[in-house]
Specification:
Elements: H1 3-14, H2 22-28, H3 34-41, E1 48-50, E2 73-80, E3 83-90, H4 101-117, E4 121-125, H5 136-152, E5 158-162, E6 165-167, H6 172-175, E7 179-183, E8 188-190, H7 194-201, H8 207-211, H9 213-218, E9 225-227, H10 230-241, H11 267-271, H12 282-289, E10 296-298, E11 306-313, E12 316-323, H13 334-349, E13 354-360, H14 367-372, H15 374-387, E14 392-401, H16 402-407, E15 417-420, E16 425-427, H17 431-438, H18 440-445, H19 449-464, H20 468-472, E17 478-479, H21 485-495
Parallel strand pairs: 3-4, 4-5, 5-7, 6-8, 7-9, 12-13, 13-14, 14-15, 14-16, 15-17
Antiparallel strand pairs: 1-2, 2-3, 10-11, 11-12
Helix pairs in contact: 4-5, 13-15, 17-19
Length: 513
């Protein structure tokens, strides 16, 4: 093949012309090709390919006769909304997108460049895993990807888009990224596929039942975003990209907004029910206070008793963590702890201020949670908040009891500003439970036990179930009008704009994994 032939062949590939109708077969599966996905992700005309003429070096099992430029991954750089980014896109049309030695080298090369230049990396995954025909060399290729995922973590944002199979050891590459995007009916993520599962455990399960997009968004918590189609998925990737900075040394861009900073919202004054046992939707609070109601929720379907996501206040990106009183009363369980802790650590790594909206009766009780390790997992959230050095703002909307109060970015974990709405209850536990413990003997000896108990509960509430004691001790900075929550948060963010906090010098902490 002459140089001109090679150039023409590569140009044909870039235009979407593949031999043997492979692109047509990919479309028949309801999937886009590697290059079509890059075109959806990046600004038009900005993609610059790297390593386009690389081919694998394997010769066993007839592999010398199966070669294609770029091998099974397209790599390069481009722009999203004018911001530079590196990208790789696995090509399922060539040997199932399997990872060869050179595929690992190509991906490693763009990840190295992204890290050196302080630019985000976006990986598009559609692969059958390590290439069996290459043996350990293919495993080396997978390892080249994984070690770079670990090195890039916390230094540059890593986004994974899983739009096909992702199996075996290679599935840990997206798992090491900051966010995973998935598509219904297309995404497949698992360590061992249905055939192996059947042979080992006799379980009969489909690819989607085992590791489909909905499974990982609702049950496992592996994925963060779920879309109905690839076009919407890549729109969502671009949307998230707008909230995050280029690297750990940069701050997110400030976006102009026409939403007034001093806007008030009357609905917040009556949103919280008078009955502390009645639920309400915390997402209404979030949508009301952020710029133009624009809130991009992360892991919406997993652990819905806690809400995490990206928004803006006066054009500045913020990460929001909030209890959801309408789900499990907003208690913190194992899944909520892990979900929120990882999100807090991402925001802290990339200079995104944290806003915590608190209505929490405590950590979830019960043998299932205790035996499942709620102590260890809950400690992850405590660690994440305590370690975070970005501006940390907290608003207690109703209940904040016990260890959960401490955990949710309280002053005791070095939260910067802590506000409370007038009806907030801050105590070791709720009045009913507290009275049963403190006045057990008094109630037992009373002539009218129920009347005595009710009277003691009212006295306890008057003394402790309000923000005044905490404010008097300096643990609450201000008791604010709910209608002015947006303004108060924006003013606090402005005050903390140049915050600098250094942690003790060390190699790294030992988070309770």
């Amino acid at each position: 093949m002459t140089i001109d032939d090679k150039l023409n062949r590569m140009e044909a590939l870039r235009k979407g012309t593949s031999p043997d109708g492979r692109n047509a077969a990919q479309h028949a599966r309801g999937k886009l090709t590697a290059r079509e996905r890059i075109d959806l992700l990046l600004d038009p005309g900005t993609f610059h390919e790297i390593g386009g003429f690389i081919t694998h070096r394997a010769t066993d099992f007839g592999m010398s006769e199966q070669k294609e430029f770029s091998d099974a991954v397209v790599t390069g750089s481009g722009e999203i909304d004018g911001r530079p980014v590196f990208v790789f896109s696995q090509d399922f049309t060539f040997i199932g997108g399997t990872i060869s030695e050179v595929v690992g080298q190509k991906v490693g090369q763009v990840m190295d460049r992204a890290l050196e230049r302080g630019m985000p990396i976006i990986g598009i995954y559609d692969s059958g895993g390590a290439r069996i025909q290459e043996g350990v060399a293919s495993l080396a290729g997978v390892g080249e990807m994984l070690v770079r995922n670990a090195r890039c973590s916390g230094a540059i944002p890593q986004i994974a888009v899983v739009v096909g199979p992702c199996a075996g050891g290679a599935v840990y590459s997206p798992a090491l990224c900051d966010f995973i995007f998935t598509v219904k009916g297309i995404t497949q993520m698992y360590i061992t596929g249905p055939d192996v599962v059947k042979s080992v455990t006799n379980e009969i399960v489909s690819h989607q039942e085992l590791g489909g997009a909905e499974v990982h968004n609702q049950k496992s918590g592996v994925a963060h975003f779920l879309s109905d189609c690839e076009i919407d998925c890549f729109k969502q990737v671009r949307r998230l990209f707008g909230f995050i900075p280029q690297n750990c040394n940069a701050k997110p861009a400030v976006v102009k907004t026409d939403d007034p900073s001093d806007r008030t919202e009357e609905s917040l004054f009556t949103l919280v029910p008078d009955d502390p046992r009645m639920p309400y939707d915390m997402k209404k609070v979030i949508h009301t206070i952020v710029d133009n109601g624009d809130f991009m929720e992360v892991q919406e379907r997993f652990a819905p008793n806690i809400v995490c996501g990206m928004a803006r206040l006066a054009g500045n990106s913020v990460g929001i963590v909030a209890q959801q009183p309408s789900v499990l009363a907003g208690t913190i369980n194992i899944n909520a702890s892990v979900k929120a802790a990882r999100f807090v650590r991402f925001c802290d790594a990339f200079n995104i201020p944290l806003v915590s909206l608190v209505d929490v009766p405590g950590f979830m009780p019960g043998t299932e949670q205790e035996h499942g390790g709620i102590i260890r997992h809950g400690a992850k959230l405590i660690y994440a908040y305590a370690e975070a050095t970005v501006p940390k703002l907290t608003v207690i909307t109703r209940k904040a009891y016990g260890g959960a109060y401490i955990t949710m970015s309280s002053h005791h974990l070095k939260g910067d500003i802590n506000y409370a709405w007038p009806g907030a209850e801050i105590a070791v536990m709720g009045a009913d439970a507290a009275v049963n413990i403190i006045f057990r003997k008094v109630i037992a000896e009373a002539a009218n036990k129920e009347d005595t108990r009710k009277k003691l509960i009212e006295e306890y509430r008057a003394r402790f179930d309000n923000p005044l004691q905490a404010a008097g001790l300096g643990y609450i900075d201000d008791i604010i009008d709910p209608r002015k929550t947006r303004l108060m948060l924006i003013q606090a963010l402005e005050m903390l704009r140049d915050k600098v906090q250094k942690l003790p010098q060390k190699k790294h902490g030992n988070i309770p994994l």
